[in-house]
Design brief:
Elements: E1 3-9, H1 12-16, E2 23-31, E3 37-45, H2 53-72, H3 81-101, E4 113-118, E5 123-128, E6 132-136, E7 141-143, E8 169-173, E9 179-183, H4 188-191, E10 192-193, E11 198-199, H5 201-213, H6 219-230, H7 233-236, E12 243-249
Antiparallel strand pairs: 1-12, 2-3, 3-4, 4-5, 5-8, 6-7, 6-9, 9-12, 10-11
Helix pairs in contact: 2-3
Amino acid sequence: MWKVIKASTVGTSHTESSLPCQDDCYADVIYIADGLDYLVCLVSDGAGSAKEGGKGAELACTTAISSIEATLNNPKSILDEACIEEWVREIQKTIYKMADANSLTARDYACTFLGALLSPSKSVFFQIGDGAIVASNGYTQGVVFWPESGLYANMTNFITEDDALANLNVSVTSSRIDEVALFSDGLQRLALSFEQRTPHSPFFEPMFSVLRNLKPVELESFDEKLRSFLNSPQINERTDDDKTLVLATRRPI
């Protein structure tokens, strides 16, 4: 049984500018007709320079959820790279339609996008832009895709761009994953060791240790505790960006 907690918090730089949090996330178990269950985790980070980056992140997540549910409930669907590319196209269509309706451009809704689908027999990961996914099979822990930067410093790739599919990273394996973390780029310097290009274990292990020991009825209250941690002085003194973190485990105690 998966135990999942998630939270997004506004960065201090946004607070000082009276801007809202421009991150969005989703994490839940989806049950489908054939009895299988899939853990679905999504994180999207609206570009700070985009007028409606937060709305773009929200649209990316909500559209992806609908597309993923439709795929999982279609017995003819195959979870492969082509399938994930179609989800990206659906997200782009939704955002482009919103941009047109508001006399804006797709760039005004620019956002990164990363996600994981985990079943008992398949692990699917995908990512456009920065942020990262950390996965563990219970014995080893690693970064699925190293965060991508764009053509220039402090830039990255966005799902709203015409060449988004060229910048889409996909991994589909039969490996069993027992723990996963997804986070936006506001946490990269805390959660990753850039010299070794590995997860920073002192960041993750205390949180996973607590999560493994939680009872199901305790999970909802820990979303708020995670939010408080992400907004704590010890975190905010090291990053002023918006922060999103999703943690999930099915590892036995």
